[in-house]
Design brief:
The complex is a heterotrimer of chains A (291), B (770) and C (161). With 770 residues, chain B is α+β, with helices and mostly antiparallel strands. Chain B has 20 helices and 28 strands. Chain B is globular. Chain C has a 5-stranded mixed β-sheet, covered by helices on one side. The chains are: A alpha+beta (291), B alpha+beta (770), C alpha+beta (161). Chains B and C meet through helix 2 and helix 18 of B and helix 2, helix 3, helix 4 and helix 5 of C.
Chain lengths: 291, 770, 161
């Protein structure tokens, strides 16, 4: 399974990459970690005349606190995120999602930005980004802009980025207060894409009421999803009253375009999805309460 | 001749000797076929039909041929006329033929059917060119579902006149009607096993190198039987056998898929004389999942009659199997084994079977580790269903029916006479290893806490070491080299089964050599005698027979020469530590090196004596016991404990025995819980990568526990074959464990695979989840 | 497509060759460099047979193009044993514990396990299994491999890796 021929470009700076993107147009594809792209090339499911390897652009890597948020460069390797104490303390949900991505060999090459820009609805990072209302910093030869997570994921493997744009970094809000986080996913084997998963954050007030909660859903649509109706119903309620299985059921309501494939029908995915929400909810609530 | 304990108890046989294969394999210095590189070597890539059934109106290779580095684009008209004779040695010339044109001729009959062969300077360029070969297909209706193939108007092979390849009935079901009618209990079910495949980590491949100047063809192959490749190829091309040399050093697993030369390899052989330069073809993973052959797709109506005590009165199986479009002849024969063995290691007085094999527009059926294993799946699943229905504990039901040693030999109702096995004994050992009563108590407690644990078991008997036809002989040549080292030349078929180590252990023992002084050369037809390769779990017994027969002759010569040198009579000489010495005066002695120097004969100190098996089969039995937990919210199955209690006779190398059992067992677990070669209704394959065809990983497997019982076989050393058993015993043990876990829900499992979705659908009668 | 010169260190030696950009690192190691110990089991990043170390990190060499590894420091299975040919503790453990049968997946496992134990010298059983889950084996049922990794982990705990 050998890829079709392409021309290879390895810019050292973002500006250079953006110039290439603008010049080369549709026939060009950005190569980050390659863990999703290269298999597609090997299977000849995608053919591109030009690959722009952004793996050598240092300014796309990094983890820093900026304005009360944690900024992570799009080119930062998943393995780096996995080991980062900053991420573990500032964005626990991201830290906990990372070991679920494939296998360690994949994480040694895969990047945050690559996963988010690839926008697979069954992947962990898009689900977490949506759950946490992350902000995507997108650049082109014409300038930069920020796209909120809720606007970023458009459809199956497609985002609101223009073909000449590159994802430079992602800013994750840092939750304070009494918060708890959990991610639970159901996959056929360890490291496989999620058939259904939940990425949950809960923040409680002093009276153990739910100040806010975020229920991100993985593998249950053509994009990552948020169970916003369920979140709205739960806000303000005492956490003790929110039974996990009830939360699970609520979260599955109103889901559209739940995938159907060899691994499961929409009904199966929702059933398992409800169980994953329930388990993640129970775990996050426990952490929020007990600290 | 029966082996004495002294004969068997060598120094190395029975020990966990380190493998001789490992030093090269651990350091990346194995030689697999893709590692072979010859000067001027070209690379091949097939153009394959995307349709399950299509007429081929024309092939335009002009664009492909014009591409850089492309040397040939060959079609059926180029290759197929080159076929002289096309038959497999172990099957024989007389078997009815199933059509197998090397390249599809005028008609493609499965998605993946090879239609053209591109040969270019690199595999990259060959793939580029393959995309540009324009084939004018006219899609035709396809019959993809074998369960409707018999009635379908769409014929896979028009000339055959039917989609039924062949069928047979030993005893019609009606003949047993009186037994069933009067029995206290009759239990029946239709059991379905899904399509899955051997999936060796290394795909098929070969390098063909035809030297026009000398008319010699050298083939480097990934194969379980180099000599079969040679003989098949010589016949195929109408070449003298001695002009064909096949070399195999390392093969990355076969499990049956690399026993027979298949159509893709035939194409390379036929292309070789046309190209006149070495050509390599190595299939990629997509091709392996698409075109290397499928297995296990079959179903049967099974029924058993029991008396009031739960003793089996009769067992009947009506079995149907999908053989794809181009099976290797003659599919009825391995299919009949399912019927023959259906009674298993149980006291079954009456029985019979019907077998039917079908053509469909899908990839050909290929053998896979225990190709007949469906009989154990069907029987053991039915036994558990029967136990639940009769209100008898499944272990107790088996206990009442398993054959005891003192009942042997026992002829099953289909004419198979078992001997030298220990079904009841391995069974009781397995239950003791589990502590069955304790598990049942644990299960009851867990149920109160809403957790669903289950235990499943299976018993089987298999016929290893086929002793007929080409399988019946094996020949080793053993030479004491000038250096004093000993070399054993034997056909082999080493593809992970440790035959090199086995042979070295046996030879060292037979000749009293230090194991580090013994080497083996295998897999090269120019230097090894004909053998049938690694198939039918034959290698342990046949290697032992071959090594012993030759070593015995060589030993006599060594003793003669040593006796003369040491001034004693041959029966006073002992061989040990690579030396010959007088038993009474061990401090005297002469090394093998010195003995070799004494030999005046230019042939040196060597012997080669063919060994012929004395028995049509060597029987092996085992019990598998599995415990599991089922998560009824998600349908996930987690295996807790896994016990294999087996009687493979004396073990040459316990590591090898356990390793073979482990590999087969995990393949069986994979077959129940993870693996499926799936097709849509139009015959398009949907699992052609490892993202969709799921192999078990290290997080999916239990720690396997082994119990061993030793009933020597009548063969040399008392050894039996053990390579296939794991894949036979595991699927029913796992299925039964899940069914046992879900028994409070009244679930009956008769269809595989047991995916989480299927398990949830079984639990929820109202909705369908899959 | 025009070939590009790729220069990198492999098993401590400077190596170079010119290849098309689309040639994977796996094919680059196997073909121009003739290091055939790295095997191709799937070519789409699932089986792990092609695992090598790139700048110390275990990666699937079928998912990297050789051009991406220009300037990198690569270790393949051929570079795991000592220059004198002494097996590493991981290799010894696989040998001692019957951790291989056909040997096709073995180089990928050895390299992966070596990298894993260097970073996690004191792994739990669950961590070992998870770490191994990215490499597929069809022969051993993982039994011998798990034993081997436990033995090698003992060596890692003693700082011998």
């Amino acid at each position: 399974m050998k890829p079709a021929p392409f021309e290879y470009h390895a810019p050292r700076e973002t500006a250079e990459a953006l110039k290439l993107l603008a010049e080369l147009g549709d026939g060009a594809k950005l190569l980050a970690g390659g863990q999703s792209l290269v298999p597609m090339l090997a299977l000849r499911l995608g053919v591109f005349e030009h690959l722009i390897d952004i793996g050598r652009i240092a300014e796309l890597r990094g983890i820093e606190r900026r304005n009360g948020e944690l900024w992570i460069g799009a080119g930062t390797r998943q393995a780096t995120i996995e080991k980062s104490r900053d991420v573990a303390s500032a964005v626990p949900l991201l830290a906990r999602a990372t070991p679920l991505i494939g296998h360690f060999q994949i994480r040694n090459r895969g990047t945050l930005g690559g996963s988010i820009a690839h926008a697979d609805p069954a992947a962990e990072y898009p689900g977490v980004a949506l759950a946490l209302d992350a902000r995507m910093e997108v650049v082109s030869h014409e300038g930069r802009r920020t796209i909120e997570a809720r606007d970023f994921f458009e459809g199956l493997w497609s985002t609101r980025m223009e073909p000449v744009e590159l994802l430079a970094g992602v800013s994750f809000p840092i939750w304070g207060g009494r918060s708890g986080f959990a991610i639970e996913e159901f996959a056929r084997r360890h490291g496989d894409f999620a058939i259904a998963g939940a990425a949950i954050g809960i923040e409680l007030d002093g009276g153990d009421r739910i100040r806010r909660c975020a229920i991100g859903l993985i593998g249950l649509g053509s994009t990552p999803a948020r169970a916003r109706a369920a979140e709205a119903q739960l806000a303000g309620r005492p956490v003790a009253e929110a039974r996990p299985d009830e939360v699970g059921r609520l979260a599955m309501e109103g889901l559209e375009s739940v995938p159907s494939d060899l691994h499961g029908s929409p009904e199966f995915r929702k059933r398992v999805g409800a169980a994953m929400v329930a388990r993640a909810w129970a775990s996050a609530a426990r952490e929020a309460r007990d600290g | 001749m029966a082996e004495s304990a002294a004969d068997r108890a060598g120094r190395y046989a029975g020990a966990r000797v380190r493998r001789v294969e490992d030093s090269r394999l651990l350091t990346g210095h194995g030689t697999f076929v893709d590692d072979v590189s010859l000067p001027g070597m070209l690379h091949a890539c097939f153009v394959r039909s995307p349709f399950a059934h299509a007429a081929i109106r024309g092939i335009d290779a002009s664009a492909a041929q014009a591409m850089p580095g492309v040397r040939f684009v060959l079609t059926a008209s180029d290759l197929n006329p080159g076929v002289h004779e096309q038959w497999h040695t172990t099957i024989g010339k007389q078997m009815p033929e199933t059509p197998r044109p090397p390249l599809a001729e005028g008609e493609a009959r499965f998605a993946g059917d090879p239609v053209a062969l591109v040969i270019a300077e690199s595999r990259y360029l060959a793939e580029d060119a393959a995309e540009r070969v324009e084939v004018d297909y006219e899609p035709l209706p396809a019959v993809v579902d074998y369960t409707v193939a018999e009635q379908s108007d769409v014929l896979v092979h028009a000339k055959h006149g039917s989609n039924v390849i062949a069928k047979m009935t030993t005893v019609p079901a009606s003949a047993l009607e009186p037994v069933f009618a009067s029995a206290a209990h009759v239990v029946s079910a239709t059991i379905h096993q899904q399509c899955y495949a051997p999936v060796p980590m290394e795909g098929r491949g070969l390098v063909v190198d035809y030297a026009k100047a000398t008319g010699e063809l050298t083939i480097y192959a990934s194969t379980q039987s180099p000599h079969e490749v040679r003989q098949f190829c010589a016949r195929l091309l109408g070449m003298p056998e001695e002009r064909v040399r096949v070399v195999m050093r390392d093969t990355g697993g076969g499990f049956g898929q690399k026993i027979m030369v298949q159509r893709d390899e035939m194409c390379l052989m036929l292309a070789a004389p046309l190209v006149g330069q070495p050509v390599k073809w190595v299939e990629d993973r997509r091709e392996n999942l698409l075109a290397a052959g499928k297995s296990r797709l079959e179903h049967a109506d099974v029924k058993m009659a029991f008396d009031a005590k739960g003793e089996i009165l009769a067992a009947y199986i009506d079995f149907v199997q999908d053989c794809g479009a181009y099976p290797t002849p003659w599919p009825l024969f391995p299919a009949a084994a399912v019927g023959t063995f259906f009674p298993g290691p149980y006291r079954v007085p009456r029985g019979g079977f019907a077998v039917k094999t079908l053509y469909t527009h899908t990839v050909q059926r290929a053998p896979y580790r225990g190709p007949w294993q469906f009989e154990s799946l069907a029987r053991e699943v039915l036994l558990d269903i029967a136990a639940r229905r009769m209100g008898i504990d499944p272990a107790e039901l088996r206990r009442r029916n398993l054959l005891r040693r003192d009942e042997l030999p026992f002829k099953n109702p289909n004419g198979m006479a078992y001997d030298k096995i220990s079904p009841l004994e391995t069974f009781e050992q397995a239950l003791a290893m589990l502590d069955y009563e304790a598990f049942r108590a644990e299960q009851a407690e867990a149920r109160k806490a809403g957790r669903h644990l289950g235990v499943g078991m299976s018993n089987f008997v298999e016929a290893s070491t086929p002793g007929y036809g080409a399988y019946a002989t094996e020949t080793a040549k053993i030479r004491v080299e000038a250096s004093g080292r000993i070399t054993v030349y034997i056909h082999g078929g080493s593809s992970g089964n440790s035959i090199e180590t086995t042979v070295v252990q046996l030879a060292a023992d037979a000749l009293g050599a230090k194991i580090e002084d013994v080497d083996t050369i295998q897999g090269d037809t120019a230097v090894t005698a004909v053998g049938a390769g690694a198939a039918g779990s034959r290698s342990a017994s046949m290697s032992a027979g071959a090594v012993r027969a030759t070593a015995s002759a060589l030993r006599e010569r060594i003793l003669e020469i040593a006796a003369k040198k040491l001034g004693a009579s041959p029966d006073e000489i002992q061989l040990a530590e690579s030396r010959a010495s007088v038993r009474a005066r061990p401090e005297t002695g002469v090394s093998f090196r010195e003995l070799a120097a004494l030999v005046g004969d230019p042939k040196g100190l060597e012997a080669s004596v063919p060994y012929t098996a004395n028995n049509p089969a060597i029987f092996v039995n085992a019990t598998h016991v599995c415990t599991c937990e089922v998560d009824v919210e998600t349908g996930r199955v987690r295996i807790l404990r896994y016990i294999v209690s087996e009687d493979c006779g004396p073990m040459i190398n316990p590591n090898v025995v356990e390793g073979q059992i482990a590999g087969g067992t995990v393949q069986g677990i994979g077959g129940v819980l993870f693996e499926q070669l799936a097709y849509d209704d139009d015959g398009n394959p949907v699992t052609t990568t490892f993202m969709d065809y799921l192999l078990p990983t290290a997080t999916d497997v239990p720690e396997i526990e082994y119990g061993h019982i030793e009933t020597p076989s009548p063969g040399p050393g008392g050894y039996k074959g053990v390579g296939e058993g794991g894949a036979i015993g595991a699927p029913p043990a796992v299925v039964n464990a899940v069914a046992d876990a879900l028994s409070p829900f009244g679930v009956t499992i008769t269809r595989l695979p047991l995916t989480p979705a299927r398990i949830l659908s079984l639990l929820d009668r109202k909705a369908t989840w899959s | 497509m025009a070939e590009v010169k790729v220069r990198l260190r492999v098993n401590g030696q400077q190596r170079e060759a010119s290849v098309e950009p689309r040639v994977t690192l796996a094919d680059f190691l196997r073909e121009p460099l003739r290091l055939t110990g790295t095997h191709l089991g799937c070519e789409h990043g699932v089986c792990g047979a092609c695992t090598v170390l790139v700048d110390g990190a275990a990666v699937r060499s079928c998912l990297l193009f050789a051009v991406q590894a220009d300037g990198a420091d690569v270790t393949t299975i051929e570079g795991i044993a000592s220059p004198d040919g002494d097996l590493s503790p991981v290799q010894e453990a696989f040998r001692d514990c019957h951790g291989l049968q056909c040997g096709f997946c073995t180089p990928g496992f050895i390299v992966s396990v070596t990298a894993f134990l260097r970073e996690h010298p004191d792994p739990t059983e669950a961590e070992i299994r998870e770490a191994l889950s990215g490499n597929l084996c069809r022969c051993t049922g993982y039994q011998g491999i798990l034993h081997a990794v436990r033995q090698a982990a003992d060596a890692a705990r003693r700082g011998e890796l």
